[in-house]
Design a protein that fits this description.
Order of helices and strands: EHEEHEEEEHEHEHEHEHEHEHHEH
Strand content: 15-25%
Shape: elongated
Number of helices: 11
Low-confidence stretches: none
Number of domains: 2
Bound molecules: phosphoenolpyruvate, manganese (II) ion
CATH class of the largest domain: Alpha Beta
CATH topology of the largest domain: TIM Barrel
Structural class: alpha/beta
Distance between the termini: 35 Å
Radius of gyration: 21 Å
Strand order of the largest sheet: 7-8-9-10-11-12-13-14
Number of strands: 14
Length: 333
């Protein structure tokens, strides 16, 4: 059960609510986010919620049977939108397009890609500076200097930045340079990181784990929300299955299921989803038709020379065609 409290609830009214919940053997978690005050109540299902609903200070009350609560669509009928400022909004009818290299490599590379984004009216740049790599000998990113490099060139053009944070200790230094923190597939269930991201006021996009279920993704998002951060995006990026013909199995089904189960915006990542460059554009368009609120894909001026994920990275010509086709599909939808 979720109880939304009035913002200026009196302490004595809150106490009466808590006492009533205790009488009915609910265990209660208080959640205060950027926007609302909630009580998450876990307990018996047979209590008549009107007993609590009429109490002073209660704004609304909802039964939510899902094991995740705050991210569930069962209580929030209007879809969430995440506002990045400068008219860049994702969700509830607003579509977010994010593109950029797998990794930030050099000033020259960033400059070329920023030029490409401007030309194609793409308002969010992706680019990893802390790279989770399967091999410890592979390029692991430029770190904070790479992020500063990206920021310096994006900021004058109001291009928003999404980049991966790998551990809680990195959040503070990254904070001033990031518009969306990305939680990568390998960290999808790093609960300490999720807790820490719940304590900041900055949007977070959380990717589905490599072998993660949809339910696990929603629960990971619940970690962040329940610590106080409602500015969340979910990302389908493919999962590991028995199929070996491609890098991951892009689970397009998940887009519809996530849209149904949650009010949060859903972003599709076809680059990691299939891992094969030539198929990325069609999957991007298919995800839009399947209901995605946004697409994130990898682009590089010379994919063949990219320091990571070149095999799934579009060149500028392919990216330009995709960006145009995305506009066409959006117009059709
Ligand atoms: C990435 O976005 O470059 C990345 C490493 O993604 P994932 O966590 O989905 O593998
Ligand atoms: Mn990548």
């Amino acid at each position: 059960m979720i109880i939304q409290l009035h913002k200026n609830i009196k302490a004595e009214d809150l106490q009466i609510i808590l006492n009533t919940l205790e009488t009915h053997k609910y265990s209660v978690t208080k959640v205060k986010t950027q926007f609302e005050n909630y009580l998450i109540c876990i307990g018996k299902q047979d209590v008549d919620i009107r007993i609590i609903g009429h109490l002073n200070g209660v704004k609304d009350i909802h039964r939510v049977s899902d094991n995740y609560k705050l991210v569930s669509s069962k209580w929030k009928t209007e879809n969430t939108k995440v506002d990045l400022g400068d008219d860049v909004v994702i969700g509830n009818g607003y579509h977010g397009l994010m593109a950029g290299p797998c990794s930030i490599e050099s000033e020259e590379q960033v400059s070329k890609i920023v030029g490409h984004l401007i030309k194609n009216d793409i308002k969010i740049m992706r680019g990893g500076v802390y790279k989770p790599r399967s091999s410890p000998y592979a390029f692991r990113g430029l770190g904070i200097e790479g992020l500063k490099m990206m920021h310096e060139q994006c900021k004058p053009h109001n291009i928003k930045i999404i980049t991966e944070v790998m551990q809680a200790s990195q959040i503070k230094e990254m904070m001033g340079y990031v518009d969306i923190f990305q939680v990568g597939a390998r960290n999808s269930q790093n609960y300490n990181l999720l807790d820490a991201l719940g304590e900041i006021d900055k949007p977070v996009m959380i990717k589905r784990g490599i072998s993660g279920t949809i339910d696990e993704l929603l629960n990971s998002a619940e970690y962040i929300f329940s610590k106080g951060n409602e500015k969340l995006l979910l990302c389908e990026r493919g999962i590991r299955t028995f199929e070996t013909m491609y890098r991951n199995t892009f689970d397009i089904n998940a887009i519809q299921i996530l849209k149904d189960k949650s009010h949060l915006p859903v972003i599709a990542d076809p680059s990691h989803g299939i891992g094969i460059r030539e198929y990325v554009p069609k999957l991007a368009l298919a995800s839009l038709v399947a209901g995605a609120d946004g697409i994130i894909y990898e682009v590089h001026d010379k994919p063949e020379e990219a320091l990571s994920d070149g095999q799934q990275t579009l060149n500028f010509i392919e990216s330009e065609t995709l960006a145009k086709n995305i506009q066409r599909i959006k117009a059709l939808l």
